[in-house]
Amino acid sequence: MNTQSDSVESPLQSTEGTPAHISPAQRMYWSVRRELWESRSIYIAPLAAAALFLLGFLISMIHMPEKVHAAMALDPMQQQEFIQRPFNFAALLIMGATFLVSIFYCLDALHGERRDRSILFWKSLPVSDLTTVLAKASIPLFLLPVVTFAITVAMQCIMLLIGAAAVVGSGVNAATLWSQLGLFQMWLMLFFHLLAIHGLWYAPFYGWLLLVSGWARRAALLWASLPLFAIGIVEKIAFNTSHFSALLGYRFGGPDSGPSPSPGSMSMGYLTPLTVEKFLISPGLWIGLAVTAAFLAAAVRLRRCQAPI
Amino acid sequence: MTVIEARGLRKSFGTTVALDGINLRVEEGRILGLIGPNGAGKTTALNAILGLTPYQGELRVLGLDPWTDRDRLMCDVSFIADVAVLPRWIKVTQALDYVAGVHPRFDRAKAEAFLARTSIRLTSRVRELSKGMVTQLHLALVMAIDARLLVLDEPTLGLDILYRKQFYDSLLNDYYDRSRTIILTTHQVEEIQHVLTDVMFINRGRIAFACSMEEFESRYVELTVNPERLAAARALRPIQERQIFGRSILLFDLQPGGVDRPQLIALGEVRTPGIADLFVAILGDKPGDGPRNQATSVQGATL
């Protein structure tokens, strides 16, 4: 039987090196697609939120003509505020939905595959742990902000059409609506806010959640949140300071929230005229990204070593 | 060429020693059955070979260190860990897409042709398939990969006899050629006896016995004797004895210079024993008696 090995020696040697007709980018692409197949909530949850909102918006249109007439009496600033309000609210709603999706996605990303033992299938394929973890991290860091943006834009377009139809029926000038909205400016700021804040600025949160999901055997949500509370409480008792909770608040509130936490700044964050430059040179961003890289590196190591649960 | 080479392979979990210095050499084209009781270290050994667990000692699989080179190794190695590892949410087409997307040696047409012979629909999700169908799907994926080493850890666990038979038939007829190497573990030892070229018993993290099936067949003989000849047969020092329907079945190890086949034929019916019977003889739980000494004498044998 061993004589067989001679006859197969040559074809083996020709394939001895890496038979890499598949580039790392392709492996990354398929790994991301796999995440989308597995976690359909990535797009279903914000779409459902959008559908619900649109339904409510449509119903509210019944009283639109009277409201518009009342609004015409207001001064221009208040008028603009009145027109923009539902559009802002729509954007915030989708943002909130996708932020929740990010949290639960991250908590399950490296936990679910160990729980159902499918990690043994994934690991039977030539995809490195690094590729897998990066693909998973790219969902909250990049993909969800883009999904949020796309859904918000589509939703606001539909709202504009509905609104225009309603005011045309009432005989009010539809051009006012459009000019007051300034949708393009709004979209530009939204896009920047999503990528910068929801993607990059919050990256350490996602990194931490992914790390916990790769480490915890159960109750990943508790393991992700309790240590943070514990550190804050211990610090308060031991030193009577609250630097750690201030740090978390600053991280959560966004780069403009300053060293002290200011609740609510996140919710209105996307209206803050952040300049790209100011954001990119802020040390908070780069420290956060370094921390994220450390968390992800730890997650890669864990995935490499850990057996299914 | 050598596919797997291990020297002094060790692995412990806390104070539990899972692998206690294993030496192993598997040549290309072999089908090796790794047989052992639960907790013997089979899966740990396979996990080390597949780069799923760190280990001490020396281990080369296809010339690579599995722990540091797992992703590269997986281009040439496929494995089925056990029946239930395909993610339940995946659709059959998605599984095909994904493997085709990441594996340079996956032949999608081959996998689809295999699936066409089953009742699996391409639009089904894994959770909708029966256990047997999930195994068929996994086998279809694995067989379409032009790998040099295939590792199967209890691949037919929980399947009925028809699926099990079909599984090994497909493996032998549609997949195996002599440039491929297969390692498999199972508790249904009798069913794979005809499939194997080599057999290895592993117990308490050590290799208790290893030989090729050719050697196995020429060396071990099972003799069925009637009571009146039992004393004469016992005098030839069988390594194991058991009773079935009032007749005694004695297992002999035909060592050079010891008892030979014609002597046994004179005493009763002679046939090749099942691997399971030899397994019981070698790893039977009677400490200190003949069979156990036998086990230590062949310990560390290589293939």
Tell me about this structure.
The complex is a heterodimer of chains A (309) and B (303). Chain A has 309 residues and is mostly helical. Chain A has one domain. Helices cover 78% and strands 0% of the residues of chain A. Chain A contains 14 helices and no strands. Chain A has helices at residues 4-14, 24-38, 41-60, 64-72, 76-115, 119-122, 129-170, 174-181, 183-201, 203-215, 220-239, 243-253, 276-280, 283-305. In chain A, helix 10 packs across helix 11 (220-239). The two termini of chain A are 41 Å apart. Chain B has 303 residues and is of the alpha/beta class. Chain B folds into two domains: 2-204, P-loop containing nucleotide triphosphate hydrolases (Rossmann fold), CATH 3.40.50; 215-297. Chain B is built from twelve helices and 13 strands. In chain B, the strands form three sheets. In chain B, strands 5-6-7-3-8-9 form a six-stranded mixed β-sheet, with helices on both faces. A four-stranded antiparallel β-sheet of chain B has the order 11-12-10-13. Chain B has a three-stranded antiparallel β-sheet with strand order 2-1-4, covered by helices on one side. In chain B, strand 8 and strand 9 (206-212) form a beta hairpin. Chain B is globular. Chain B starts with a strand and ends in a 6-residue tail after the last helix. The model of chain B is unreliable at 286-303 (pLDDT under 50). The chains are: A mainly alpha (309), B alpha/beta (303). At the A-B interface, helix 1, helix 2 and helix 6 of A face helix 2, strand 5 and helix 3 of B.
